[in-house]
Amino acid sequence: MKQIWQCMVADFKQRTRQQSYIVTLLAMSVLTLLYFPSPDAQYQTLVINGYRGIYNSAWIGVCLAMLNVMFLPIICFYLVKNALELDRQSKTCELIAATSISKQAFLFAKWGVNVLILLSIVLAMLLSSVLIQLYYGESYQVDVWALVWPQLVFVLPLLLAIASIAILFESITWLKGGLGNVVYFFLWVGSITQSIEGVSGIGAVLESLDIEVAARFPTEQGGTNVGITASESVKTFVWHGFEPSAVHFQGMLPLLIVSSIALSLAFLFFDRFSNGSMNEIKKQWRIVSVIEKVTGILDRIFVGATKSFAVTRLLRLEFKLMLKGQTNLWLIGLVILNVCQVFVDQNLLLSLFLPMSLLWCVLVISPLGQLERQTNTIEIMAYSKQSPLLQSMASFSAGWGLLAFACIGSIARFVVIAEWLLLVQLFVAISFMVSLAYFCGTFTQSKRMFEVVFLVIWYIGPLQGGLYLDFLGVNSQASWDAGMPYYFLGIAVGLLMLTVSIRQTR
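Above: the chain sequence. Below: its structure as tokens.
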């Protein structure tokens, strides 16, 4: 137990000193403020039948729990999914592997620190909500129990599950990187639907609120809106809350089971920072991939052009860095998606296959902006004769060319049928995606930010048809009418200019 405690104290100090932790605390406090708009605001967040509760402790406590259930899983997972990676980056993993602490005790300590970090974020949000209640002044009576119990019943089990899943993903080799980030994003999307529509947990709270408001105001007609809703006139009522029941505690059980199973699997998969002999055997018997053959052909094609032009030499090297390590499966999937782009119905192409083709390349272009750091070529590029502007243009062009190749079936189809507006929108989408990846990688020196931000934009925009985030223009006419292509092109140019400026100052 002493070993676990010492490990937790050291790890907690290290991780709470990170800039990302401080930024997350501030961001969640601001998000709490935005989730409780002022009475005269132009938007509302939780409206039931045209009503919302006054900002007393009961209403704020339940609303805060809903906010945490919806957004903490996506924000906090990526915050704590670095418990083991920090030890690898700091080169202390070998020291830990040589100590007498068991891997079960070590992982339990990491899990405990994850829980403490997540609890500190919820505590900061609770304190912010108390200040919000006092500031708006609709009720000055602070009921600590009414604020806290929804967090204990609905949020705490979720925190335990997030902490366990983060440890599990870091313990499994193929989930600890970008693929794990993508997989978790879709798990989060499914969990939101389950939380809102479920018969226990937050779902039970919403159903109870619907029944109570309908009983108190039977003449009103409307529905329940969870999330940001444009509304200028919303009526208020006094809601005194309710005590947790067996139904609410029943909603805790699935999350507690998930947490236990994920932590147990992490104990099983964690290799104690060991590079096992099986990995060496796989490397020895590794067959030359199709990607390496393709890059070899590209090398021979480019070799003549790169003799005289520095840009083409850099472009070829950037292509090689991006494609390095990609598997046969990735290339086969890219070819299949391109074939589908040629033959499927145009509506299906725009709503599904083009978004999927761009998603297929997310993990390949996410290292843009920090490829030099990832491949240990920073010193080489720093002492090369090429200007930072030329290096930036080569990196951007390589990413742009890769995404264009991923959509080559659509490009050829749009040219043949003379759909020039769709072609322009596709080029704008590619430019926006590459610029966003390049900016995120340069600004944070990590690929995680792009993988998270882009997935959110991709899901709400092209996949769900959200007009103001639809950078691909799934509904082409509505997109042009709203000026979205110009909007995203301007963002792409602005991000690229800002990225070049950042790189020139470093």
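The first helix runs from residue 2 to 16.
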